[in-house]
DNA sequence: CGGGCGGTCAACCATTCGGTTGATGCGCCG
DNA sequence: CGGCGCATCAACCGAATGGTTGACCGCCCG
């Protein structure tokens, strides 16, 4: 089997070094290059594709400090290089993170606390065009399929966004040119859908589910 | 100078491998052992101290999934081994994380996105009994020193963190084993310091100023 | 075309929250 | 020692929020 050449994308030098070290123990995988953020990854891919396209797989972290985040980077990469598999390797396994990654076109979703062998196997699977999910992630996706959480309407999301800025009901009503009564009605619906009973909890849940940007 | 023997504590095999690889490039530092959580770290330290105590420094991550978290682990280590320096190496630099680590007795606070040389230097400083702070962390602490007026006390930060999870005053009072009256008093102070007049606005400002993790 | 859903509004009441005053104890610092 | 900041608690009141019921309109979909 041909050697698999991967591009590491992670803002932590420590993590990149760890993946390098980990892959150096496997003869069938090698690290082609590293990027600290999404922009850098795209530049590397463009350069590589210009000289023959030697990269088989991108290993992408989701959280990256100041530059382009992993979800956006994944989306861009899939736009420019639809056939290049992107395997997400990150710390968190919240619904919001997983869904965002899948929607962005990730070929798989692995967690950093996985043992080296699992990560290597996932890399090989993803490079072969298959989907590679960590067990915890797979379980979470199944759970969502069974009882999909009710989603907020556009108007309700608008309200939650204003909520999160700390505005009172009165302030929200003025901003949206509706009465306070309407604001309260919306809030009741939002609380029902999110399974909470006050505004701060609604904000917390909305952030968790990435209904609003945190 | 004698070789520095460090204990790595991090729940991610990838990160441990990265630190190992990073330190293997330095002749004056070596990895004595690894632990995936606080319990394991304590067991290793007890065993090592029984046979002569060969460990000079603990490198501690703060976020560790299911077992003992890094702050608790640091506190326990400092209780049992007061002279053993613990250098925190983590991802986040919020006031809450930093203060908790410092109060637990950490000798330093470095961020994982730091270059290898900085981490090595910090390790050597910490082992020599000095304090090692990442520039971002140092800046944040200095900022707190310069104008302590608008900065929250540790207790108040604790309150804000619970606020942000959506808890009511009553729930917070139970969690912290204080009366609702005390919670309200704290909140009034928090509102004054942050220049707001309700809890959701307080959360918004606290996130903005990175008093709590967003 | 009828019903469901989303958005709007009103009135009402209970609960929570915000704000004040005042008080105690503790530890630290000059 | 005296003061100051921090944390704790109590009682009280007005305002904001939560929760309920009921209503109207417009739109889309079957």
Summarize the structure.
The structure is a homodimer of 214-residue chains. Chain A is an alpha/beta fold and 214 residues long.
Overview of the structural elements:
- 2 copies of one chain form a homodimer.
- With 214 residues, chain A is an alpha/beta fold.
- Helices cover 53% and strands 13% of the residues of chain A.
- Chain A is built from 10 helices and 6 strands.
- Chain A has a 6-stranded parallel beta sheet with strand order 2-1-3-4-5-6, with helices on both faces.
- In chain A, helix 2 (38-50) packs parallel to helix 3 (70-80), helix 8 crosses helix 9 and helix 9 packs across helix 10 (199-208).
- Chain A is elongated and about 65 Å long.
- Chain A starts with a strand and ends in a 6-residue tail after the last helix.
- The interface between A and B is large, with 38 and 39 residues.
- The structure holds a DNA duplex (30 and 30 nucleotides).
Helical/strand content category of chain A: alpha/beta
Query: How many strands in all of chain A?
Result: 6
What kind of oligomer do you see? Answer: homodimer
Low-confidence stretches of chain A: none
Strand order of the largest sheet of chain A: 2-1-3-4-5-6
N-to-C SSE series of chain A? EHEHEHEHEHEHHHHH
Mean of all residue-level pLDDT scores of chain A: 87
